UniProtKB/TrEMBL annotation:
Reactions the enzyme catalyzes: a 2'-deoxyribonucleoside 5'-phosphate + H2O = a 2'-deoxyribonucleoside + phosphate
InterPro entries per UniProt: HD/PDEase_dom, HD_domain, YfbR/HDDC2
Species name: Candidatus Nealsonbacteria bacterium CG_4_9_14_0_8_um_filter_35_12
Protein name: 5'-deoxynucleotidase
EC category: hydrolase
Domain HD/PDEase: from-to ranges: 13-156, 231-374
Pfam (any one): HD_3
GO MF terms held by the record: 5'-deoxynucleotidase activity; metal ion binding
Keyword terms, alphabetized: Hydrolase, Metal-binding
Length: 427
């Protein structure tokens, strides 16, 4: 789902809601750490804040602007300035927006068990009403992330970018740390010297980090590109999905630290900023021709153990070097945490790493099933096999069975799975 504000401004290939949410979750994590807030709560509020849009759609105040003209040139003129409405109109628009989004949220949580539904809805209300310091904080960060994205799209000239993002952001940002962050953004893009204060330098480096990981919003997943999928998900979109699924399947599990698992899910593909998105171990053996590539994916490639280890070690070294570069200017404690989380994920040696690795496989499978609805010939049998080999968590295995029931009729399930495992189908 592309963000409506960018569509109205005719941005080509605008970011999706999922991609926006990914970077908001990252900035919420990093900023909440600096403020000694509840980091897990901040990350979850960020992940949940726009989920109501599954049913409500991505709503921007401009959709309710009573005088938004149909003419593109006139509409652009208004969009380049903040819609300066009266307080009465703002309240009316706010109530309309809140009701529609609340209805969407209530509709969505009907699919969840009571515990999940309660946490998601309370976090969403927290964000909307600012009923906790984390809710207020993430709401302000949402404006800042959008401001950064607007500068990335339009630059800084008023005749191109307009002034509305700065005004929209400054309307609500009041946190002392975030006010300093706005100063850093202004000095970075509009000129001026960032002061020598340690905190400002740290914020400058966080801004640089956020700009770099913003590349993941535009980076399509190589697996889907290789299979010829049109408009495939990006790395940022995948990271959002993985983090959200980590919460869904991880809540209440005593053997894992959920906060650590959420962070791991958000950063497990960060090296792709510089390395590109790998399909380990397929990257080394894929032909250029799409039809030939699809043949490779007809079955699970069986590589020798030594071959797998060699590929893993080569990729690990490249990715580790890329992540060191990406995080090099971050505050040492934060850099150490991100690198350790990624390393933990790659080596798969802790309960959290094993869990998030399984969630990653599940996220890939779910995305493949959604794509197969549009392309019935998409070869995904090998992903099913990969999932059953990789996953051992009882609740995830149960979910795999539910996926079979959801996406296939019984006869098709039997045919597909007998074929995958080389058995003779006898209805």
């Amino acid at each position: 789902m592309p963000r409506t504000g960018w569509v109205l401004r005719e941005v080509k290939n605008p970011e999706t809601v999922a991609e926006h949410t990914f970077r908001l979750a990252i900035i919420s994590w990093l900023s909440a750490e600096k403020r000694n807030f509840n980091v897990k709560r901040a990350i979850l509020i960020a992940l949940f804040h726009d989920l109501c849009e599954v049913f409500a759609g991505d709503i921007t105040p401009f959709l309710y602007y009573p005088k938004l003209p149909k003419s593109k040139s006139e509409r652009r003129r208004i969009l380049m300035k903040w819609a300066r409405l009266s307080q009465k109109d703002k309240e009316k628009i706010g109530k309309t927006k809140f009701k529609k989004e609340k209805d969407g949220c209530l509709k969505l949580i009907k699919f969840l068990n009571p515990r999940l539904a309660k946490e998601l809805f309370s976090s969403w209300i927290n964000y909307e009403k600012g009923s906790s310091r984390e809710g207020k904080f993430v709401n302000q960060l949402n404006r800042i992330e959008t401001l950064i994205q607007s500068i990335e799209y339009f630059g800084i000239k008023d005749e191109v970018a307009g002034t509305n993002w700065w005004e929209w952001t400054e309307e609500i940002v009041e946190d002392s740390l975030l006010l300093k962050f706005l100063e850093v953004i202004q000095e970075k893009f509009y000129g001026g010297v960032i002061g020598s204060a340690k905190e400002k330098k740290e914020l400058k480096n966080i801004l640089g980090f956020l700009l770099e990981i913003g590349r993941l919003k535009k980076m399509p997943r190589t697996l889907w590109v290789s299979l010829g999928v049109k408009n495939p998900e990006t790395v940022a979109g995948h990271l959002f999905t993985t983090a959200l699924m980590t919460w869904v399947f991880g809540i209440g599990r005593k053997e894992i630290d959920l906060k650590r698992s959420l962070k791991m899910a958000l950063c497990h593909e960060m090296p792709s900023v510089y390395t590109g998105d790998f399909i380990t171990p397929f990257s080394k053996i894929l032909p250029k021709d799409e039809k030939e590539r699809r043949k490779i994916f007809e079955k699970w490639p069986r590589l020798p153990k030594k071959g797998k280890e060699k590929i893993f070690f080569e990729d690990y070294q490249k990715e580790r070097k890329a992540l060191e570069k990406l995080t090099q200017k971050l505050e040492p404690t934060l850099k150490k945490e991100i690198v350790e989380l990624w390393d933990e994920y790659k080596t798969n040696l802790t309960p959290e790493a094993r869990f998030v690795n399984q969630i990653n496989v599940l996220a890939v499978l779910l995305q493949a099933l959604l794509y197969q609805r549009k392309d019935k010939n998409l070869p995904i049998g090998w992903i099913w096999e990969w999932a059953f080999e990789k996953c051992e968590c009882p609740i995830i295995l149960k979910f795999l069975e539910e996926l079979k029931e959801k996406f296939y009729k019984k006869s098709l399930i039997q045919k597909a799975f007998f074929k995958v495992f080389g058995l003779k189908y006898a209805p």
